[in-house]
Amino acid sequence: MHLEAAITNVLLLWMLTVPHEFAHAWAATRLGDETPRLDGRVTLYPMAHVDWLGTVILPFLTSLFAGGFLGWGKPVRTNPAALRGGVNGLALVALAGPASNIVLAFLLLVVARLLVTLAPPAASFAAHGAQLSLYLALFNLLPVPPLDGSRLLLVARLPAVVYQELARFGFLLLVVAISVSDLGQWLWVWSSRGAALMFTLLR
User: Fold this and answer.
1) Three-class SS of residue 116?
2) What is the DSSP string of 23-87?
3) What is the pLDDT of residue 101?
């Protein structure tokens, strides 16, 4: 059991979810889809993006018992027919979320680098946030619905009927993969290495 890590992960996920979902909404509106704006999602207000199951409950339980991490924000609705570029536009909207996580990880590591001698606890918190942000980027790139990476399957012209069948069991597949396999720990190791590399480059 990892109680401290579970609490920290939930707090950080809440912080990291906001720019992730905002990036989806912003990208969709830039590509011509007004659905996120009409839904009130083009905002940095945290409550607009929280999903209580995905942002609080499951992240806490998977961090506590599984050693991995499973979490998400409230999905941003889009209308693919309104997006310039069709499925390619949909892929750009999907990739905007993980891209925002990578940018945010870099910014958090800059903060950690500045505070490493002045306020080590704050620097450690920022560094942990950067690692979690990279974890979320990698996790969301998995090609399993409803994750962002699954949109790339549509770009690869996976038949819609196959995608829909995969989407029916995608959530269950993710829960099982995080709970009984080393997927979560593998993603955490690689996000840790990525954060360490970025921190080293900042020196």
Assistant:
1) coil
2) HHHHHHHHTT--HHHHTT-SS--GGGT--IIIIIIHHHHIIIIISS-----PPPP--GGGSTTTH
3) 96
Report how far residue 34's alpha carbon sits from residue 83's, in angstroms, rounded to the nearest whole number.
Answer: 9
Token code pair at residue 187: 């993603």
In 3D, which of 55, 91, 74, 70 has the Cα closest to residue 172?
70
What does the pLDDT look like over 140-158, one tens digit per residue? Answer: 999 988 899 998 888 888 8
Q: Please indicate whether residue 21 is annotated as part of the active site.
A: yes
Residue 143 is classified by DSSP as S
Domain hosting residue 40, numbered range: 3-202
Catalytic residue among 4, 21, 34, 165: 21
pLDDT digits (tens, 9 = 90+) for 53-76: 888 898 888 888 866 667 788 999
Contacts of 172 (CB under 8 A, 6+ apart): none
Report the alpha-carbon distance of residue 156 to residue 74 in Å, rounded.
26
